[in-house]
Each structure stands twice: as structure tokens, then as C-alpha cells.
Specification:
Blueprint lengths: L1 H23 L19 E2 L4 E2 H27 L5 H43 L4 H39 L6 H34 L2 H18 L1
Antiparallel strand pairs: 1-2
């Protein structure tokens, strides 16, 4: 009997202790906007021979190389031979796609204006950010949209050119089947590499050149714009 009462009291004490600990905990709420990065120029790699800031700048060079590679692929594909009737079909498809892209660009501007109002309300009214900080966040969202929109424009253009070249290559004797497979592969590789290079270039610029307290909010603006454009 005494042992049962003692166990009951022990359980009651543990319950009260857990309840007190739970009620005494203040939840820590944070998100991407609260990211505070260290000074990347002081973060070292390879036994202090490579700083984090220098590593990001090397990444910018790699992104530029990717951009140049994508443009070279475009020029190479555009220089390939194709029958006049095939290029005429590709050009007709491109003009139709261009009309679609322009219309989508107008619609994106309307959607971005709504996003702009949300950014003003959240970061201005709720987070109490200054005008300069909000300007950087808004600019990041615009860069995100332009990056996705530009890559889409480039991708449709190179693909419409690659279609006619691939169709013409399939008619050639010898390596025709191989060339008709390689051309669209080069086209897709060019678009994919350009997409990664453009978006990563902007993200590295945010990390490397903006104040550390703006990196998180600008990443949010950039992600919203990039997703909206995509």
C-alpha cells in the first residue's frame, strides 16, 4: 500500500515537473528572413589559404563560364545546315512561342505587382525594414523573375532552331541517326546549364555582396520571383 502511494506521488511529481518545464519554455520562431551569416571573408578553407568570399567569387567565374558555354552551343546549333522549308516551320513556331512569351510577360508583371504589395506589407509593416532594405528585396524578386523568364526565352529559341536541324540531320546518310540524337541533346544541355548558371550567379551575388542581415530576406524575394517566373 505504502509502495503504491509512493509510486503515485513520484509519477505526480514527474508530471508536474514536466508541465512546469513545458510552460516555462518560450518557443523560438525563425525563418529564412532571420538568417544571419558570418563574415565570409573571415571563414577559411584549406588551412586558411582560401576564404569563403574568394570561394564565392570563384563560383561567379564558373557561372560565367557556364553562360559562355550555353551561348556557344546556341551559335553552333544555329550554324548547322537545315532545309529552307524546315527552318520556315521552325521560324513560324518561334513566332508563335514569342507571342506566348510576351503575353506571359505581361501577366507576370501583374502577378509580380501583387507580390510587391505583399513584400511591402510583410517586410515594411510587420518586420519594420527600412526603405533601402525593401528596395534590395524587391530588386531580388525582379532578378528572379528576369532570370527564369530569360532562360525560358533562350530555351524556346534554341529548341526551335534545334528541331529543324535535327530533322534535317536525320535525312543525311551515314551519321544522320547519330546527329539527330546529338543535336537535341546539346540543346537541352545548353538550356539546363544556362538555367543553373544564371540562377546560381544571382544567388552568389546576394551572398557575396549584400550585407549579412539582408541575405535572408533577399533570398526570399529572389526565390519568390524565380518561382513565379518559372
Amino acid at each position: 500500500m505504502c509502495k503504491s502511494i509512493a509510486n503515485r506521488e513520484r509519477l505526480r511529481g514527474l508530471f508536474l515537473l514536466a508541465l512546469a518545464a513545458t510552460l516555462g519554455v518560450v518557443p523560438a520562431l525563425a525563418g529564412e528572413a532571420d538568417i544571419r551569416l558570418p563574415d565570409l571573408s573571415q571563414v577559411m578553407f584549406l588551412d586558411g589559404s582560401l576564404s569563403g568570399l574568394l570561394l564565392l567569387k570563384i563560383g561567379l567565374v564558373v557561372c560565367l563560364i557556364g553562360l559562355v558555354f550555353g551561348l556557344i552551343q546556341y551559335r553552333q546549333i544555329a550554324a548547322l545546315p537545315a532545309h529552307k522549308s524546315m527552318t520556315a516551320v521552325s521560324d513560324t513556331i518561334w513566332e508563335t512561342c514569342k507571342t506566348y512569351l510576351i503575353q506571359q510577360g505581361k501577366f507576370l508583371f501583374l502577378l509580380w505587382f501583387l507580390v510587391f504589395l505583399c513584400i511591402l506589407y510583410y517586410f515594411g509593416a510587420l518586420e519594420h525594414k527600412g526603405v533601402v532594405a525593401i528596395g534590395f528585396i524587391v530588386a531580388s524578386s525582379i532578378l528572379g523573375i528576369l532570370g527564369s523568364y530569360g532562360v525560358a526565352w533562350f530555351g524556346i529559341r534554341i529548341n526551335t532552331r534545334a528541331n529543324s536541324r535535327s530533322a534535317f540531320a536525320s535525312l543525311l546518310p551515314g551519321r544522320g541517326a547519330f546527329e539527330s540524337l546529338i543535336i537535341p541533346m546539346k540543346s537541352g544541355m545548353s538550356v539546363g546549364l544556362l538555367l543553373v548558371s544564371v540562377e546560381l550567379f544571382f544567388m552568389i551575388c546576394i551572398l557575396a555582396f549584400l550585407p549579412t542581415d539582408l541575405v535572408g530576406p533577399c533570398f526570399i524575394g529572389f526565390a519568390i520571383g524565380e518561382s513565379l517566373g518559372a
